[in-house]
Write a structure and sequence with these properties.
Elements: H1 2-5, H2 50-68, H3 71-85, H4 87-107, H5 115-118, H6 127-136, H7 140-155, H8 161-178, H9 183-191, H10 198-214, H11 229-232, H12 241-246, H13 248-251, H14 261-267, H15 273-285, H16 291-299, H17 304-310, H18 323-331, H19 338-355, H20 359-363, H21 370-381
Helix pairs in contact: 2-4, 4-6, 7-8, 8-9, 8-10, 9-10, 14-15, 15-17, 16-17, 17-19, 18-19, 19-21
């Protein structure tokens, strides 16, 4: 049974606070404004304060899952209703479901042995992913008992590349919880993994560190930890620099959010080499939730910054859309300066192959224009290597 468990883990971003009355996350960027109206659980959207709206959704989502008695099949149905309703709930459901998943797992005594029974039968990165991740984060000690070798073997047996990546990313979070938010121990556990997976584990560990600085997502708030990525990431090993930076601005947002190329540059003044590359990707991540807007911002940067910016694109926001939208996104690489086009086609070839479990390589790359076809194919070929930055 354990061989099937970690291989089906879902998840992505970890922003929400812990506890039934914790209220909405502070500083979470991509969840958007709560002033949008929805059609599913619509009464919650009519409440007046952020905390009441958040807790209303969490309570009613938990009630729906409980009533179904079958979260594995109910969560995909909730995904459909939430996407149809749109609004704040659609953008925040993943984070809300982390809280719902934790509550459900504790009430039903979920363990590694029976987790498979409850995991959503879905690849949707929204509500289903959040619920699965929430449950898993209650099992940190059990995951730790598997050891790095056992855990990575389970992750690599995942049925899709997206799920194997997410599983490895989750290991970083799990190690942080296991070691009580002591980053050096979690990073060392990630370094014990194969080089093709270690940076993705490290991204989870560093992400959890930034969450603990903010005191969110059931972490123990660090009052004396390093609060600056410039300071912390300067001491990371080379392959972990970008993972260290990547989620920093999400959890410790700047006073002014960057909305254009100038804003991205302003957050990274004085940095060079790997540190600047990591900072630019992290800044690009918070410019917009729309990858089409992001790629336009990247086009206005210069030199290596353009390529670094591409690594901050929100690829998961096209994961559940029609295939034509993914093709349109990679075609935008032609709008970049010629020196950056090859890297753009290659990176999007990689990431779009990840979210389609390799189908993009055969169904799209061969039909890209001559300037990008080979780079797209080359990128698709490396989909099983470390992604390093992937939202």
């Amino acid at each position: 049974m354990k061989r099937l468990v970690l291989a089906t883990l879902f998840g992505a971003l970890l922003w929400q606070a812990a506890g039934a009355s914790a209220g909405p996350p502070l500083g979470g960027f991509l969840e958007g404004s709560n002033d949008g109206r929805t059609t599913y659980l619509s009464r919650c959207s009519l409440l007046r304060t952020d905390a009441k709206i958040w807790n209303c959704y969490v309570t009613r989502l938990l009630a729906d899952v409980q009533k179904s008695g079958d979260p594995a099949h109910e969560l995909p149905r909730i995904d459909v209703k939430v996407r149809a309703g749109g609004g704040y709930l659609e953008s925040a459901c993943h984070m809300m479901m982390h809280q719902v998943g934790r509550m459900y797992a504790r009430r039903h005594h979920v363990t590694l042995a029976n987790l498979q029974r409850y995991l959503p039968r879905s690849n949707d990165p929204g509500c289903s992913a959040g619920f699965g991740m929430g449950m898993v984060l209650t099992l940190g000690s059990q995951i730790g008992q598997l050891g790095p070798d056992g855990a990575i073997k389970l992750c690599m047996r995942a049925p899709t590349r997206y799920r194997s990546y997410t599983c490895v990313h989750t290991l970083g979070h799990a190690y942080m919880r296991l070691y009580h938010e002591q980053l050096p121990f979690a990073v060392q556990a990630c370094r014990a993994l194969p080089a093709s997976q270690a940076p993705d584990c490290a991204q989870g560990a560093y992400h959890d560190y930034w969450l603990s600085i903010a005191g969110r997502d059931a972490t123990t708030k660090q009052h004396h930890g390093t609060r600056s990525a410039r300071a912390l990431c300067a001491h990371a090993i080379p392959s972990f620099v970008r993972p260290c930076w990547y989620r920093y601005f999400l959890e410790v947002p700047p006073k002014t959010l960057p909305t254009n190329a100038a804003g991205v540059r302003s957050l990274c003044v004085g940095l060079h080499s790997r540190q600047r590359a990591g900072c630019v990707a992290a800044a690009a991540l918070i410019t917009s939730a729309d990858p089409f807007i992001q790629i336009r911002i990247c086009a206005r940067l210069h030199g290596p910054d353009t390529i670094s910016c591409l690594y901050g694109m929100n690829i998961q926001n096209v994961a559940t859309t029609r295939g034509s939208r993914r093709v349109k996104l990679i075609e935008r690489c032609a709008d970049l300066r010629r020196s950056a086009q090859g890297a753009c086609y290659e990176w999007l070839g990689t990431t779009l192959s990840v979210v389609t479990n390799g189908r993009f390589k055969s169904l799209a790359c061969p039909f890209i224009g001559a300037n990008g076809r080979n780079a797209c194919l080359a990128g698709a070929e490396r989909m099983n290597r470390a992604l390093v930055t992937f939202s």
